[in-house]
Structure formats: structure tokens, C-alpha cells
Amino acid sequence: MRTKEILKKTRSGDVLSKEEIIYLLGLMPDSPEAYMVMAEANRLSKELSEGKAEVRAQFAINLAPCSCNCLFCSFATVNGVFAKETELTPEQAVAYARQFEIDGANAVFMMSTAQYPFARFVEVAEEVRKNLKPETILIANVGDLTLKNAIRLKDAGFSGVYHALRLREGTDTDLSAEKRKQSISNFVEAGLKVGTCVEPVGPEHTNGELAEMIEFTASFNPSYSGAARRIPIPGTAIAKRGVISELRMAQIVAVTRLGMPRSVIGNCTHEPCTLGAIAGANLFWAEVGANPRDIEEKTEEGRGETVKSCQSIFHESNWDVWDGPSRYYNNR
Ligand code: SF4
Q1: Is 109 a domain residue?
Q2: Which of 106, 261, 266, 306 would suit a FRET pair with 46, their CA atoms being 20 to 30 Å apart?
Q3: Ligand 1 binding site (Cβ under 6 Å of any ligand atom)
Q4: Residue 56, domain member (yes or no)
């Protein structure tokens, strides 16, 4: 059987070809072969992360309508979900970050919308960094940056960034795919670790598109890759395209794991779920404040998971959880 042959290849440490990735993505999500793929991705993730999953916790320092107009994002001006702008004070940002430390997050993420003033972001970040334990890993989730500003992030105390070239970038967003890729190069050149993801997956994306994106994420040896499905924002045009099932997402998470080199330890999925974890996700996200997948101003009152609930989903999926600063940023 072809699936068995492909899995034998991943077991011996070989990287899959695009054609093999497409084949695995084309299996019926509830077929015995797809379950074999998920089992192998789980085995490999556990081997690479020594059986310990991790939880990242993200807070947003602002909430604002954003003219980059990514159709899947609740901040997009075109979606008309949020009309007013709010931002955290530095004290509030510090309080969120310190709470994540207390809760046992393995890394703290600070997010802003793409057009939030960069100088202000750095100013708040410096305050947050000063108030965290030296060993706590701080990661930025911001818009596209020049090399100069990427270096400023590093100097402000960030260990890395989250940055993704999204599926159909430039068509479903008003951003340029080339600029997204350039930013990733800038972050790498600045010495920041880059985590990424194949996202946001909807039913319209072909296996060829997914395979191409899996290969792109593998191309820059990220700290982690993974896959996340698109969450429909009620009332938006893109919501009409529908949503993939958690099982299909789990299959894509598994294939993404198998499409990465072994130097990539992390494999994330969002939103957290047991199916993702049993298919080889070893990284989940807790969130507070504004969230691009939520229509609540404070996602802790909506879709957001807590560090504790993420840990619990891992335990239910037969994963242990790492206690301490993330180990997924050591692949370079
Ligand atoms: S995903 Fe980021 S860049 Fe796109 S609309 Fe939302 S905040 Fe703006």
C-alpha cells in the first residue's frame, strides 16, 4: 500500500516530496490510512519533543479595525465587526504577561494588529520584558517589518516571532505575499526564531495549495510549523465558504508534521483540540484580549482557551506537558 511506503520513508528521516504530501492529504480523513498517518505523526512528534507538548499564551496589546482586510480576520475593516480602537496600558500588558508566567505558559506572545505603531509596540514590550523572569521566552506577533525594525524587536528582548504567509495571501488579503516572505527573511536575518503555520485552511483549498504551503514553511526551518483551520466570523462573506472538520484539520496537522525536517520540533494547531493532539500537534495556544477569530473584545469571554485548558486537552490526548521555557526555539 502506498501510504505504508511513504510512512516508511518518513520513519527513516527522509523528507517527503510534494507529490507524496499531496497523496497523504488526498486520503479520506476517516480512512484507516489517514489514521495511520496521524499515528505516525503523533509518534514522530513525541520522539522529537520527548513526549512533552507545550502551551504558548498570547495577549493582544490593541484592538482596532485593520485596513489590511484579511477576509478571515475579525479586525478587518471590511468585516465591520469592531468599530472602535482600544489599547492596553503598559501596566495591563505587564499584568497579562506575568499571569501567563504564573499559569505555566512555555512562552509568552505579544500581539498587535498590523498597523499598530511599531515604536509604541517596542516601548510596551520593553516594559513587559523588564517585568518577566529572564528565562521567560517572549515572542512577537506583528505585521510585516523591515530588517531594521526586526533588529529592534530582537534588541527589545524578543526571542522570536510568529509570522505566516497565509493561504491565498494577496487574494483573500490586501497584503503582498512577497512582502510576507521578505519579512520572514528579515526576522531570520535579525536572529529571531520564526514560528509559522499553514493557515487559515478552508474547504476551498486544494491539496496542491496545502502541499505548496507545507513546503514553503519547511523551506526556512521554522521553530514550529503546523496547521489551523479557518474559523468563520459570523456575518462575513468568507464564512459562506464553510469550515473544515476537526478531523480533516487533524489530518493536515499530521501531514504537515511529516512534511517538515526533523530539525523542526514544534507542530502547532489552532484551535486546541484532542484530535489535533493525537494527530501530532505538540503546541497549543491560550489567548486573552483581542483575537482575530473572535467577535468578543476579550476572547477570554469567548473562544479563547486558558493555559490550564490547553494543558488539560493535551493530558486527555495522552501527552505530558513541558514545565519550563520552550525548547522548540533551539533548532538553529
Ligand atoms: S490578520 Fe492582521 S493584517 Fe490581516 S486584517 Fe487582521 S490584524 Fe490586519
Answers
A1: yes
A2: 306
A3: 66, 68-70, 73, 75-76, 113-114, 143, 173, 292
A4: yes
Helix (H) / strand (E) containing 110: strand 107-111
**What per-residue confidence (pLDDT) applies to 330?**
64
Does residue 314 sit in helix, strand or coil? helix
Q: What's the structural domain count of the chain?
A: 1
Q: How far is the CA of 259 from the centre of ligand 1 (A)?
A: 27
Give the C-alpha distances (Å, rounded to integers) separating 181 from 146, 193, 214, 242. Answer: 11, 15, 14, 28
CB atoms within 10 A of CB 144: 19
Q: Which residues of the chain have pLDDT under 50?
A: 332
- Given the CA of residue 175, which atom of ligand 1 is nearest to it? 3
Span from the CA of 64 to the centroid of ligand 1 (angstroms): 10
Answer yes or no: is 330 within a domain: no
Write the Ramachandran bin of 54: left for phi over 0, alpha for psi from -120 to 50, otherwise beta.
beta
Q: What is the pLDDT of residues 276-312, one digit of tens each?
A: 999 999 999 999 988 899 888 889 888 889 999 999 9
* pLDDT value of position 332: 42
User: Do the domain assignments include residue 255?
Assistant: yes
- Residue 210: enclosing H or E segment and its boundaries? helix 207-219
Question: What ligand 1 atom has the least distance to the C-alpha of 115?
Answer: 8
- The domain containing residue 194 runs over which residues? 2-10+22-317
Exposed/middle/buried for residue 135 (C-beta within 10 Å: 0-12, 13-18, 19+): exposed
d(CA 252, CA 128): 35
Look at residue 22 and give its three-state secondary structure: helix
